[in-house]
Design goal:
Layout: E1 76-80, H1 98-102, H2 104-112, E2 117-121, H3 138-148, E3 153-155, H4 161-168, E4 174-178, H5 185-188, E5 190-192, E6 199-201, H6 204-216, E7 220-223, H7 234-237, E8 244-246, H8 248-261, E9 268-272, H9 281-287, E10 293-296, H10 300-309, H11 320-323, H12 326-335, E11 339-341, E12 345-349, E13 358-362, E14 372-376, H13 378-389, E15 393-397, H14 410-424, E16 428-431, H15 435-442, E17 451-452, H16 457-463, H17 469-472
Parallel strand pairs: 1-2, 1-7, 2-4, 3-4, 7-8, 9-10, 9-15, 10-11, 15-16, 16-17
Antiparallel strand pairs: 5-6, 12-13, 12-14
Helix pairs in contact: 13-14
């Protein structure tokens, strides 16, 4: 069902609950409407309305495989990993070692190519710039030793003379894990007092000293922690030596995001869900310069529906701030010949709960008073599937409904199934982390798509068109 987008319509008083990505669970949840497709086609990219900046090239960054293997032999290698693993609150025991296991290919590659020493550094939790036994990496060292099958030496500091001397006196092929980087204020650069909210900044001299000590530890640096690449922390941007390389995890992220952001194969479809338009203005703005089609689902679709078609949305979310941008975004889509696709029917609930009563409503019927849309309806799922299967590059960021409740997970599951089918038929399908990655995990589909990002905030900032400090800091390919 398609039609031209009508001019904006007035918005009334609307109670506000719903949807997923960044809405507190205390709020209700809802989700979106359909809009009529615009003619689609290949178009030249238009300049973004975002502030002009020099764009970082993801494909030009040096990775672990760009360095001749012989150049690792006899070298001390500092690897920034992400060992921020979940732990049992009482025992401190690691409850999921997936991030440790994910780092093994890079660690093993460096060892197998004859490194003199591997020095691993990471953060864990939020110790707020001071030592805290709750956040020690010692249990991680023990777990790493098990999965690596090789002795791991834990050092109870991460910088300073003791660490420098220990690493300098290493045995051939030794593996070290340093203590939590965030035990030092100089890693993040500042901390906030939990009681007063007062912020304390590290001095420039102290930060420089911290970074200099990290640099002394190694002959070359590898960043394999994509999830922290959007943070200008000392372990991410402070190593001064050359080369500075992407590890295998970082390399995979850069390759797939480069494919989407720098050279996507058309037709290029983006799928965006989430609670509020205002949370994703930059993301939508940036993608409207790149995509051929855009599915808007999740809670923010209701604000579009209310503003464009005066659809009754019941107790679904209405984003007052985001509503002011609806007509600008639609105008930009029209200018760039981007086809906009919204849900046209909804699975509604009488409350935000897994045992809520359900009913299916169409645009014409609207969401009843006191109810909220919690999932995409069957007709919407079919429209989404058609768009997905007719695309060659697909970027998915945001579920179609409240997938955490099985009664309202059908839309997200159908979208996932369509993405898997598209991937099997040769499309590139990338999931941008966050709740969408959780959907993939829920249905055991992480390995059935081209790439499921581990990035979270880093993925989002890349998709918004921002430069990531941790990527910008990597050496350039010659």
């Amino acid at each position: 069902m398609s039609a031209t987008i009508p001019p904006g319509s007035p918005n009334g008083d609307i109670s506000q609950p719903i949807f997923a990505d960044q809405v507190p669970l205390s709020q209700s949840q809802t989700f979106g409407q359909q809009q009529k497709p615009k003619t689609q086609g290949n178009r030249t990219n238009k300049p973004s309305n975002l502030k002009t900046r020099k764009k970082m090239s993801l494909s030009s960054k040096k990775t672990i495989t760009d360095l001749p293997a012989g150049e690792i032999k006899g070298k001390r290698v500092l690897i920034r990993v992400d060992f921020n693993v979940p732990q049992d609150k009482t025992s401190g025991q690691i409850t999921n070692n997936a991030r440790i296991v994910a780092a093994l290919p890079t660690i093993k590659y460096v060892i197998e190519n004859g490194s003199k020493a591997v020095i691993l550094c990471s953060h864990l939790g939020r110790p707020n710039g001071a030592p805290n036994a709750k956040y020690t990496l010692r249990p991680v060292a023990e777990e790493l030793q098990k999965v690596l099958g090789k002795d791991v030496t834990f050092i109870d500091e991460c910088v300073g003379p003791k660490v420098e001397e220990t690493v300098a006196g290493c045995k051939e092929g030794q593996v070290f894990l340093l203590e939590n980087l965030r035990f030092h204020l100089e890693e993040e650069g500042s901390k906030k007092d939990e009681e007063t909210g007062e912020k304390t900044k590290a001095s420039a001299e102290a930060v420089e000293g911290f970074r200099a000590s990290l640099t002394k530890l190694a002959d070359l640096y590898i960043n394999d922690a994509f999830g922290t690449a959007h943070r200008a922390h000392s372990s991410v941007v402070g190593f001064k030596g050359e080369p500075r390389l992407a590890g295998f995890l970082m390399k995979k992220e850069l390759e797939f995001f480069s494919k989407v952001l720098e050279k996507p194969e058309p037709p290029f479809l983006a799928i965006l869900g989430g609670a509020k338009i205002s949370d994703k203005i930059q993301l939508i703005e940036n993608l409207l310069d790149k995509v051929n089609k855009l599915i808007v689902c999740g809670g923010m679709a209701f604000t579009f529906k209310k503003m464009l078609d005066s659809v009754e949305i019941g107790n679904s979310l209405f984003d007052e701030d985001g509503s002011k941008k609806v007509h600008d975004l639609v105008a930009k889509a029209k200018k760039n010949n981007v086809e906009l696709i919204f849900p046209i029917d909804y699975i509604c609930g009488d409350k935000f709960a897994k045992d809520a009563a359900r009913k299916t409503v169409t645009d014409a019927e609207g969401v009843p008073k006191g109810w909220m849309g919690l999932d995409a309806g069957p007709a919407s799922r079919e429209e989404f599937k058609k768009a997905i299967l007719s695309s060659k590059t697909i970027l998915w960021n945001g579920p179609a409904g409240v997938f955490e409740f099985d009664n309202f997970a059908e839309g997200s599951k159908a979208m996932l199934d369509a993405c898997i089918e598209a991937c099997q038929k040769g499309a590139t399908v990338i999931v941008g982390g966050g709740d969408t990655a959780t959907v993939c995990k829920k249905y055991g589909a992480e390995d059935k798509l081209s790439h499921v990002s581990t990035g979270g905030g880093a993925s989002l900032e890349l998709l918004e068109g921002k430069n990531l400090p941790g990527v910008a800091n990597l050496s350039e390919k010659k």
